[in-house]
Amino acid sequence: MNRQERRQVERIGTWKEELEALHARIAPHFRRREVGERAGRYLSGLLGPVERRNGWQLAEAIGEERPDGVQRLLNGARWDAGEVRDDLRTYVLEHFGDPEAVLVVDETGFLKKGEKSAGVSRQYSGTAGKVDNCQIGVFLAYASARGRAFIDRELYLPEEEWATDAERREEAGVPEEVEFATKGELAKKMLSRALEAEVPASWVSADEVYGNDPNLRGWLQERGISYVMAVSRSHPLPSLLGRLRAEEAVSEAPGEAWERVEVGKGSKGPRLYDWARARLPYECADGWAQWLLARRSVSDPREIAYYRAYSSEDAPLSELAKAAGVRWSIEECFERAKGEVGLDHYEVRRWEGWYRHITLCLLAHAFLEATRAKANAGAEEKGGTRRR
């Protein structure tokens, strides 16, 4: 065995040990030992070379002849996905925790053909880029200089089609205590859990769905939490002449108001944009300010994105820009979670089954991200040693 082969065997051995340790962490949440062991195999199956992580293929991948056991794990066994979610959050913070981190809220669609899956309806999905038959999940990711991964999730329940339909709710196992909640309210629910757990972070970032929600912005401001959230070009703002749209206010910005800022590394190199901001005339706590922030494409100045921000009044423009720029990381998380651990491969229909599959997938994704970050850090360290 040559040196390269030995290193590969060592990496596989370490990877297996770390996955076993992660399984041991969540095992106490399963009341029956056999269910806990199956959860460990399920986690391993999600990480394996399986084309579709559905019941039959996962069962086959983990050495079971039929999918019955996997289906019971997701639909009938006694365990609380919320407890595993809490372990997920702790695991992510152990690997990526940083006081300068950003909490990123976003949603993704899960395309479905039938009408039985909890929360499914014809609604807009960014995944499809159109109105389609789908479920919508709202997610909270944690992003720092050390790495990024999801720490929470909620399933959106459309009001007319689901929240007020008692028969449909019962059939899909939607708990009685679950009421209609807007996507902004689901974001608040997840952010509240993060605050209660004292998750270290400096910013909250989100797209237009959340930035246009005044209740969510106000809730964050009451708690002294800095945010940068996208808003629509038509977002209304106060002015001496009445109310302006965000795009109208930005069109009046002088040339010297724009500052070029690098907000991270992309697949094609540094992500450079021109940024400008204006302080908004809203009452704030002492030392705080609300801002209108704009991002302009370097290659096409007509391409402008708009943001509402809340921060200390002395925060530099570059700091707000970089916090806004972190939001793209959750898109990468969705792409990897769907492509590498089957986040969207499930066949469950009931409310509880969705949370169980999604939570185990997020745990598998976090494991991959932690493993990837560790490998990258090792490669950089060896590269630095060689350069010296």
State mean pLDDT (0 to 100 scale): 91
Q: Could you tell me the strand content as a percent range?
A: 15-25%
Counted up, domains total 2
N-to-C span: 29 Å
Contiguous runs where pLDDT drops below 50 for at least 5 residues: 1-10
Give the strand tally.
Answer: 12
Q: What would the principal axes of the Cα set say about the shape? A: globular
The percent of residues in helical segments reads: 40-55%
Rg on CA atoms, Å: 23 Å
Query: From the helix content, strand content and strand pairing, which structural class follows?
Result: alpha+beta
Helix-strand string: HHHHHEEEEHHHEHHEEEHEEEEHHH
Largest β sheet strand count, sense and barrel closure: 10 strands, mixed
How many DSSP H or I helices? 14
Sum this structure up briefly.
This protein is α+β, with helices and mostly antiparallel strands and 388 residues long. Helix content is 45%, strand content 24%.
Mind explaining what this structure looks like?
By secondary structure, this protein is of the alpha+beta class. The protein folds into two domains: 266 residues, no CATH class; 119 residues, no CATH class. Helix content is 45%, strand content 24%. The protein contains 14 helices and twelve strands. The strands form two sheets. Strands 1, 2, 3, 4, 5, 6, 9, 10, 11 and 12 form a ten-stranded mixed β-sheet that branches. Strand 11 and strand 12 form a beta hairpin. Helix 2 crosses helix 14. The protein starts with a helix and ends with a helix.
